Amino acid sequence: MLGLAAALVPCGAAEILDLGIGTGALAARCLRLARKARVTGIDCDAEMLALARRRLGGRASLIHGRFEDAVFPQADAVVASLALHHLFTRPAKSALYRRILRALRPGGILVIADCCPAAERSLRKAQKLEWIHHLHRTYSHTKAAACLRSWRREDCYMPLETELQMLRSCGFHPEVVWRRGMFAVVAARKRRQA
Asked: Is 182 part of a structural domain of the chain?
C-alpha cells in the first residue's frame, strides 16, 4: 500500500507534505522516487517524529503538533497514510481537504492510504471480519482485542464513497487506484489553472 501511494507522487516534486508522518515510512518511499524533494512532516507523537528524523535525515522538516491545527506550506504533493481517520466528523475532514487544496500547487496531488470500508452493511461486516482475522494472525487474541478497543476510541473510518464525495465537493478529482478489503489508496488531483 505504501509503495503504491509513494509511486503516485510525481518524480519531479520539490515539496511534499506528509500529514501524520509517523515513523516516516511513506515519506522515505516518496523521497526515494522524488530525488530532489524535501518533506515537511507533521505528527503529534514526539517519539514517532524522532524515528522519522532518524529515517529521513536532512531532507525533512518535522513539526510536532496536530495536522488539524498546523499551517501548511505550499506543496506539490500531500500524502497521508493511516492518519486521516483520526478526524471524527465530515465537517472536520472537509475543512482539512479544503486546506490541503489551498496548499497544493496547480496540478498537485493528494494521496491518501487509509482504512475506508464499504458503505453497504454486509460488505462492511465481511471486510471487518477479514481485518480481524488478519490481526489474529499477526497478534495474540488478547493483543488484537486490545488494539480494536483502542482504535474504536480514537479512529473514525468513513466509507470510501463518503471520502470520494467529500473530496469532489472540496474541488478535488479523486480516483481509487488500489483497494483491498477495508483499505484503499486514493489519488485526488488539484486542477491546473488555465
From this structure: yes
